Amino acid sequence: MNIVLSGIKPTGIPTLGNYLGALKNFVRLQNSMTDYEFFVFVADLHAITTPQDPKTLKQNIKNVAALYLACGLNPERLVLFIQSEVNAHIKLGYAMQSICYMGELERMTQYKDKAAKQTQGITSALFTYPALMAADILLYDAKYVPVGDDQKQHLELTRDLAIRFNNRYGETFVIPEPLIPKKGARIMDLQDPSKKMDKSSDNEKGCIFLLEPINSIKKKIKSAVTDLETCVRYDKEKKPGISNLMTIYSTITELSFAEIEAKYVGKGYGDFKKDLAEIVACEVGKVQENFNRIINSQELESILNQGKERANLIANRKIDKIFKKIGLGR
Ligand code: ATP
Ligand code: LTN
User: Fold this and answer.
1) pTM for this one?
2) What is the pLDDT of residues 168-181, one digit of tens each?
3) Are residue 29 and residue 146 in the same domain, yes or no?
4) Which atom of ligand 2 is nearest to the CA of 154?
5) What is the pLDDT of residue 276?
6) 244: domain range?
7) I want to staple 191 with a disulfide (CB 3.0 to 4.6 A). Which of 63, 206, 234, 241 is the partner?
């Protein structure tokens, strides 16, 4: 069976960016790609590449797992697991580091951005992170990897590493392809539309968290930065603020930019933002309702237990073959 796989880091409460760029897209794909098996995981090993408080991390891991289900992924068609519960990720991560060049890792923009923000205590794991990400994907022979725009470069590296390994040791890995949504792949910060909306950003006002109170979400939308013109028009370069809000509007309602523009002819940003606040509140409200039902349920525990078992079964078989090809062990 062909496999679609993706992961989310439990570095905080997932944002509207994670929802529109990743979670909502997974659900859409699950509904359309009915002959594929879906693997989604909580990338907790990736989370500790930057400092995390252990108690908060534990809660965030559970929250991300519950959010996958709350967004509408079907547990019957899903292998949902926690990365650190499948040891083979670490083994293959190490093997990937052993074929990956320093120069390749030095080019990664996510590393450069994070290292620039965090001037002290940059860990070696933050640097080698893309090798572990490649392992996450290659371990399951995933064909498609749905991600937001920021992960494109990591996927290219994953493909390069898979090809290099196959050439060196013989056909071993499926070469994966990213699935990047046409709209919503890069939701920007509401206060600074030149930056991507980031769950670990320090500017909370610009970020909508999926689990924050609905009233606070509405307020953030109403106080989002726009521009001095008042007409609702999409122009990413000249009007980044309103264009970002229109992207959110369009991704949720599936209306095109032209349809949104037509709807707001003669109206100002106030009317637009008021409507958008309701649209987002309704969408996130549904997710929160599901989340509250799932978060402390036995159902979540048993889905994660089954996921752990299935993921380990596949990953252990694969890592044994890989280590043999490399020549490791007896
Ligand atoms: P961090 O802030 O800790 O780096 P992150 O939210 O960027 O976290 P992940 O949690 O691993 O990183 O992201 C999960 C998925 O959400 C990825 O597919 C990523 O591409 C996507 N994503 C993240 N931010 C956005 C955004 N602003 N717009 C659209 N998609 C996003
Ligand atoms: N690196 C990704 C999260 C991630 C991932 C993966 C996504 C880790 N492993 C495997 C897809 C497939 C991020 O920072 N958003």
Assistant:
1) 0.95
2) 999 999 999 999 99
3) yes
4) 1
5) 98
6) 204-292
7) 206
